[in-house]
Amino acid sequence: xxxxxxxQQKDPNVWIVILKGFIMxxxxxxxxxxxxxxxxxxxxxxxxxxxxxxxKLNILKTPTPTSGNFKLVPQKSKSKTKxxxxxxxxxxxxxxxxxxxxxAGYVQSPFICSFSIPFAVIYCGVYIEVPDMATRLPSPLGxxxxxxQPQIDFGPMMxxxxxxxxxxxxxxxxxxxxxxxxxxxxxxxxxxxxQDGLExxxxxxxxxxxxxxxxxxxxxxxxxxxxxxxxxxxHLTNLNLGENSFRxxxxxxLGKLQDVSQIDFSLNQFxxxxxxxxxxxxxxxxxxxxxxxFEGQLPSELGSLTLLNILNFKSCLxxxxxxxEVSxxxxxTYLDFTGNQLNGALPSELGILTDLESINLSNxxxxxxxxxxxxxxxxxxxxxxxxxxxxxxxPTELGSLDNIIIIDFSNNQISGSxPTELGKLKNIKTIDFSNNxxxxxxxxxxxxxxxLLNLYLEQNExxxxxxxxxxxxxxxxxxxxSYNLLTGTISSDFFKSNKSISCDFSGLTDSNCKIKExxxxxxxxxxxxxxxxxxxxxxxIFILITLILILIIFSIILIIILIISLFL
Length: 568
Fold this sequence. Notes:
Layout: H1 13-35, E1 40-43, E2 71-74, E3 103-105, E4 121-124, E5 126-128, H2 132-135, E6 142-146, E7 152-153, H3 154-159, E8 166-170, E9 173-176, E10 189-193, E11 197-199, E12 214-216, E13 223-224, E14 238-240, E15 245-248, E16 262-264, E17 269-272, E18 286-288, E19 293-294, E20 310-312, E21 319-320, E22 334-336, E23 341-345, E24 358-360, E25 365-367, E26 382-384, E27 406-408, E28 415-416, E29 430-432, E30 437-440, E31 454-456, E32 461-464, E33 478-480, E34 485-486, E35 489-491, E36 502-504, E37 520-522, H4 526-567
Parallel strand pairs: 4-6, 6-8, 7-9, 8-10, 9-11, 10-12, 12-14, 13-15, 14-16, 15-17, 16-18, 17-19, 18-20, 20-22, 21-23, 22-24, 23-25, 24-26, 26-27, 27-29, 28-30, 29-31, 30-32, 31-33, 32-34, 33-36
Antiparallel strand pairs: 1-2, 3-5, 35-37
């Protein structure tokens, strides 16, 4: 089995890194620009112990007498050291100054993980064991929950606050998003990412948060439909609902989000027709809706999104043809319609989208020929049009794709010869023309592709001999020319400088080939192979009959000798 390299999208872990950076940046901004404080110290006469088996947090306190509540005293920083020493004994739950609370988890530094601030509550890997503690905290500017263990019930916690401007949570909360979130009228950032226990629906009350500009609730267990009230969030610039279990149709009211630049509805269960009103969002730069259950055609109104960079409708059960209006999206760099039921011809107008870097139209029902205009896409790196019904020839103009890395036209009905112009593709790593109707000889110019890692030409009607020029492909790892009509001989050390290559000649000889040591392997066209096989079988039958005759003659001679010996 040949493992084919394919273009990989960005690692999901990248989102985690980005989110961490965003959270830390937002926190620093809150403290330095809005609060304008130096390092913060808890004003208490005792030490607070972190209930962790691995580490403790010792915090220096001022001898200021306090009541039961923790009080933060802002102080100007006189030293850059993060070391905090202890000069008092530990509190216990029996101590009246314990306040009925404890901290658990980990703390990365006392500067970014202060327990509370007069205008903000920051929990960085810190858990409040007793919910009553939250009732004594002032209304915060923002709430940060990052990798808090054990996790916090999000609903009751948020019900304690009002007028919060930032909610940033990563892998820290469970429960539901409460309707009381409507009290956070100044809320601008709502980030609830990767909360394994966050379930329920999106409350329609979010629609009254008119200041909201960033709504990121991806990778949770949320369900239900998108409230039509989301159309009232007219200042929203980013809407990410990806990787949940949302159902129903996408409300047309989202067409009123004139400021939105990024939408991600990927990996949900949305159905119905994709709303044409999305075409009104002229500032949109990213539209990702892969892996849903839409029906009908792609709306031609998508052509109005002239600032779009990413357009992803992968695996959405869409039908019909690709709208030619897509060619109006001149800034488009990433186009993915793979895994749908699209039919009709490939729009030649795609050739004018000169910023395109990746095209994936695999696994559809596209017909017609490959447009020669694709040769104008000088920035193109990945071109996948495999598993369709394409016919005609491979355009020679593709030899002008200077930056192309992968070309995959496998599993179509493409005929003609392999263009010699492909020998100009200096950066290409994978060529897959397998399972087509290509004929003619393998061009020797492919030997110029010094970066080529994978060459798949199996299941075609290629003839002639294997060009010796291919033996200089020093980095190639997969080479498959099986099930063609090739003739000639090949040595297993054909690729002299590469002993780890996986090579498949099945269908050409009586066995597959793994090139490991030198030996001569003959590969024949199929008719010749059949003739020789028949001759070998006839020869074996002849040898068998001859042996039987010899055995019979030997037996007769032995019997005669025995009879003569008896009479003597």
